[in-house]
Amino acid sequence: MKFTIKSEKPATVKTGCVILGVFEHRKLSRAATEFDKSTRGLLKKLLQNGEMDGKSEQTLMVHYPAGANCERVLLTGCGKADEFDSRTYNKAVASATRAVNQSGATDAVSYLAELDVTDRDSYGKVKSLAEITRSSLYTPDQLKSKKDKNSHPLRRMGINMAAGEGRIARKALIDGIAIADGVELARTLGDLPANICTPSYLASQARKLGKTCSYLKVSVMDEAGMKKLGMGSLLSVSRGSREPAKLITLEYKGGNTGDKPVVLVGKGVTFDSGGISIKPSPTMDEMKYDMCGAASVLGTLKACVEMELPLNVVGVIPTTENMPDGLASKPGDIVTSMSGQTIEVLNTDAEGRLILCDALTYSAKFKPEVVIDIATLTGACVIALGGHAAGLLSNDDDLADELLAAGKTADDRAWQMPLWDDYQPQLKSNFADMANIGGREAGTITAACFLSRFTEKYRWAHLDIAGVAWKGGHKKGSTGRPVSLLTQFLLDRCTD
Ligand code: BES
Ligand code: MN
Ligand code: ZN
To answer: Domains of the chain: which residue ranges?
Structure first.
């Protein structure tokens, strides 16, 4: 998709499709009113005839409007004008994109970024227009030999802005496209099956990303290296699989030397069968998505590179399969983590925390400003928050607030849960320093409590993305979350 910033009148612009906003009830936006005047009241007539009311996500395509230079005009419902916020704006952009893409128009000019959005400035509107347009067109057809081909796909999108806003709009466009590229990378990796997207494959993808930028350094540690560092917990998970585990590190140095980095740690279980505590068969295929934390770290770093963010960011990705091989951990096995703490593995399906704990101990070596781990960690989080918000737990409330705010801005929200000491006793083991499970109650919190025992040396937050990283059922597919949240968090740190 090629985006350009424009400043032209809607009735005179030459394009396959002009996209205009309409509010409830049949209230034309400024650009739509102007268009209506040039086309002798065409839009008002259609609305009066009941063709459309302006409800959120409604669209109405009109062909060859007399008096205008475009081949089509798409009216896009935006809901109530005084309640038009970033979430409704994003929905309008998404439904407009889908409608235009199916219409045969290969280019379009959108007037949606000119609308007043209660919680967004011009920069934010253009940035999300690029992001949402791109993500609305994503299809997971990488491995289909015959693609459902659209012979006239949408290829060029003009974004109309007031003449004085060109500079800010162009900056927003660069950022929006960078984030769209990051989200797309995360989705593509997530949707790949586990026989292709192995730990070694993730490592090769990281190396490939490293080649695109001279100040992104990528290194991959193999199992021998992990053994030397004493990562007995991570290695206990990979022992059950034929695929060798990898510990991937990506160091992006966009900031000054000496600036402490933000460290992002992503769970990269490329397939989670549960191990000896094997999972039931229905929907087990979805456990190919158990590397979406890792994918979000790669996607976020890709966006950092493209935006040339003036920050230091480190990505750390422990990646392995969780399989029930003859060498796999057995319930009751006790392993020693890199921190020296011993862990009784009461359930081999609680493997995410076992690989993260060693990656978190390892992360201290970067002398981090903050550490954020991102993981499809608990089914309990899906029960608690569904597919709407990621679970957020932190040992630092300022950091938690920053992440919550970034999630709101990016429309990629998180919701905080408590990390009170009251929950810690659930992890007691009779035989080791701790057990790897804390019982049925508060499963998301006890998983975070487990991780908190490895993060005492720095400010840390944990994002449980089990509910948001992919959609199941009919619309099965990766979402790319929380790349938008993470990039927004990093962007917000640049303006300080
Ligand atoms: N990857 C899963 C978490 C998961 C399950 C995410 C379902 C999305 C949907 C994780 O490794 C896991 O299996 N967690 C267990 C922990 C339990 C054994 C304490 C869970 O949530 O059931
Ligand atoms: Mn598991
Ligand atoms: Zn898992």
So the answer is: 2-137, 180-495
Strand partners, 24: 80
- Residues around ion ligand 2, judged by CB within 5 A, are 272, 349, 351
Pocket test for ligand 1, best of 378, 451, 476 (most atoms within 8 A of CB): 378
Segment holding 80, helix H or strand E: strand 72-80
| Positions marked active-site | 279, 353
Which is the closest atom of ligand 1 to the Cα of 290? 1
Residue 352 Cα to ligand 1 midpoint, Å, equals 8
Angle between the N-to-C axes of helices 122-136 and 86-101, in degrees from 0 to 180, rounded to the nearest 10: 40
Prediction pTM value? 0.98
Tens place of pLDDT for every residue, the chain, 496 residues? Answer: 999 999 999 999 999 999 999 999 999 999 999 999 999 999 999 999 999 999 999 999 999 999 999 999 999 999 999 999 999 999 999 999 999 999 999 999 999 999 999 999 999 999 999 999 999 999 999 999 998 888 899 999 999 999 999 999 999 999 999 999 999 999 999 999 999 999 999 999 999 999 999 999 999 999 999 999 999 999 999 999 999 999 999 999 999 999 999 999 999 999 999 999 999 999 999 999 999 999 999 999 999 999 999 999 999 999 999 999 999 999 999 999 999 999 999 999 999 999 999 999 999 999 999 999 999 999 999 999 999 999 999 999 999 999 999 999 999 999 999 999 999 999 999 999 999 999 999 999 999 999 999 999 999 999 999 999 999 999 999 999 999 999 999 999 997 6
Rounded CA-CA distance 112/31 in Å is: 9
Pocket-forming residues, ligand 1, beta carbon under 6 Å: 272, 290, 347, 349-352, 376-380, 382, 437, 443, 466
Of 3.40.50.300, 3.40.50.1970, 3.40.630.10, 3.40.50.11030, the CATH number of 180-495 is 3.40.630.10
3-state DSSP percent of the chain in helix, strand and coil, to 5: 40, 20, 40
CA 466 to ligand 1 center in whole angstroms: 8
Looking at the CA of residue 279, tell me the nearest atom of ligand 1: 13
From residue 147, give the alpha-carbon distance in Å to each of 1, 150, 151, 357, 471. Answer: 18, 9, 11, 41, 21
Q: For domain 2-137, give the fold.
A: Leucine Aminopeptidase, subunit E; domain 1 (3.40.220)
Residue whose Cα lies nearest atom 13 of ligand 1: it is 349
- CA 220 to the chain's CA centroid: 23
Give the pair of three-digit tokens for residue 166: 């060109």
CA of 274 to the centre of ligand 3 (A): 7
Q: Using most ligand atoms within 8 A of CB, pick from 273, 349, 354, 423 the residue to mutate for ligand 1.
A: 349
The ligand whose atoms approach the alpha carbon of 437 most closely is 1
